[in-house]
Automatic annotation (TrEMBL):
<comment type="pathway">
    <text>Amino-acid biosynthesis; L-lysine biosynthesis via AAA pathway; L-alpha-aminoadipate from 2-oxoglutarate: step 4/5.</text>
</comment>
<protein>
    <recommendedName>
        <fullName>homoisocitrate dehydrogenase</fullName>
        <ecNumber>1.1.1.87</ecNumber>
    </recommendedName>
</protein>
<keyword id="KW-0457">Lysine biosynthesis</keyword>
<dbReference type="GO" id="GO:0005739">
    <property type="term" value="C:mitochondrion"/>
</dbReference>
<keyword id="KW-0597">Phosphoprotein</keyword>
<keyword id="KW-0560">Oxidoreductase</keyword>
<keyword id="KW-0028">Amino-acid biosynthesis</keyword>
<dbReference type="GO" id="GO:0047046">
    <property type="term" value="F:homoisocitrate dehydrogenase activity"/>
</dbReference>
<dbReference type="GO" id="GO:0006099">
    <property type="term" value="P:tricarboxylic acid cycle"/>
</dbReference>
<feature type="domain" description="Isopropylmalate dehydrogenase-like">
    <location>
        <begin position="4"/>
        <end position="348"/>
    </location>
</feature>
<dbReference type="InterPro" id="IPR019818">
    <property type="entry name" value="IsoCit/isopropylmalate_DH_CS"/>
</dbReference>
<dbReference type="Pfam" id="PF00180">
    <property type="entry name" value="Iso_dh"/>
</dbReference>
<keyword id="KW-0520">NAD</keyword>
<keyword id="KW-0460">Magnesium</keyword>
<dbReference type="GO" id="GO:0000287">
    <property type="term" value="F:magnesium ion binding"/>
</dbReference>
<dbReference type="GO" id="GO:0004449">
    <property type="term" value="F:isocitrate dehydrogenase (NAD+) activity"/>
</dbReference>
<keyword id="KW-0479">Metal-binding</keyword>
């Protein structure tokens, strides 16, 4: 199978970590029967300065018509608002209908083991950005629309159920796990927002009640108490499904539990397309020093592969990364080590 992958380094350390993502894909053993073709694509603030568009049409077009997947580094946003600039990642999610943001959060060798996946709805909720400000009787008032649809809630919950089943299958193949069976936790605040979050809750429960999910345990949790439990008892979570805003907040919070932003991957997933994206930004404070941790990107390449149905290849990447972390000899400075980006990549490639 030949997979065509768009590479979008973006800005800052994106340019240092995306080449590492390419190298790990190229280093996968031939016995997997996988070949990769890469297309270099532009997006980000530098692209905006050069061309006037942060997300050139060509990038979208090539991804849509030629690619199976993509790796996206990070982009810098302007510190003061700039006319014509809008976030390329938000644009890509919309234009390619990447309706799920999937973020696995896993600890290695910690006494508080964590192994969860947060599945965040990516297209609606407060992020439809329909806001207005007006003069009320007592001064200015601002309002935003929170839009929840049955269709989007159903498809995100279905994806969460499928991820739970896939994780269970990997466990049954003998991979060590802290979880006994598949579990999906539905997150909402329907005690207050009975219509919007109420619909998310009801549609998610209905989707997860499907026959194919009969082995999946389903529980629900109100988002605030969820944050409490996430920090007190993170080992309790397997797969979490949430509307856009709660999912955004929970996933950055969960990332904090495993140490460094440089470790946490994500993927933006649609039907038949997956784009891996480290969850960190462009890190201008460390760019150009060859010390960026490449692991978030290497793991993002693995998440992308999982959603392109190449689970075996993904598992090999995860294992090579975990082995590097478990040994703990060649770590980048964000993890307290002294290794360069190059040295970390070389160690992981060797293990692969
Ligand atoms: P950031 O994630 O770039 O950096 C936060 C801190 O974590 C910094 O001290 C940085 O050095 C460190 N860090 C991040 N990734 C690392 C890695 N791989 N290895 C070692 N250390 C790492 O967030 P910040 O500083 O808030 O934002 C910087 C720029 O990135 C801004 O322009 C922001 O808008 C943009 N950004 C872009 C994102 C994206 O493209 N998805 C996400 C977050 C921020
Ligand atoms: Mg975020």
């Amino acid at each position: 199978r030949v997979l065509r992958i768009g590479l979008i380094p973006g800005d800052g350390i994106g340019k240092e970590v995306i080449p590492a993502g390419r190298r790990i894909l190229e280093a996968l053993p031939a016995s997997l029967g996988l070949k990769f073709e890469f297309v270099d694509l532009k997006a980000g603030f530098e692209t905006f300065e050069q061309t006037g568009a942060a997300l050139p049409d060509k990038t979208v077009e090539v991804l849509k018509t030629e690619c199976d997947g993509a790796l996206f580094g990070a982009v810098s946003s302007p510190t003061t608002p700039r006319a014509g600039y809008s976030s390329p990642i938000v644009g890509l999610r919309k234009k390619l209908d990447l309706y799920a943001n999937v973020r696995p959060v896993k600890s290695v060798g910690s006494k508080n083991p964590i192994d969860m996946v947060i599945v965040r709805e990516n297209t609606e909720d407060l992020y439809v950005k329909e806001e207005k400000t007006y003069e009320g009787p007592n001064g200015k008032v601002a309002e935003a629309i929170k839009r929840i649809s049955e269709r989007a809630s159903t498809r995100i919950a279905t994806m969460a159920g499928e991820i739970a089943l896939r994780r269970q299958k990997i466990r049954e193949s003998g991979a060590p796990s802290i979880h006994k069976g598949p579990l999906v936790t539905i997150t909402h605040k329907s005690n207050v927002l009975s219509q919007t979050d109420g619909l998310f809750r009801q549609a998610s429960k209905a989707a997860l009640a499907a026959e194919k999910f009969k082995s999946v345990a389903v529980e629900e949790q109100i988002v605030d108490s969820m944050v409490y439990k996430l920090f007190r008892q993170p080992e309790a979570y397997d797969v979490i499904v949430a509307p856009n805003l709660y999912g955004d907040i929970l996933s950055d919070g969960a990332a904090a539990l495993v140490g460094s932003l440089g470790l946490v991957p994500s993927a933006n997933v649609g039907d038949g397309f997956a784009m891996g994206e480290p969850c960190h930004g462009s890190a201008p404070d460390i760019m150009g020093q060859n010390i960026a941790n490449p692991i978030a990107t290497l793991r993002s390449a693995a998440v992308m592969l999982e959603f392109l149905n190449e689970e075996k290849a993904a598992a090999m990447i995860y294992a090579a990364v975990d082995a590097n972390l478990e040994e703990g000899k060649l770590l980048s400075p964000d993890l307290g080590g002294k290794a360069t980006t190059e040295e970390v990549v070389a160690d992981i490639l060797k293990r692969l």
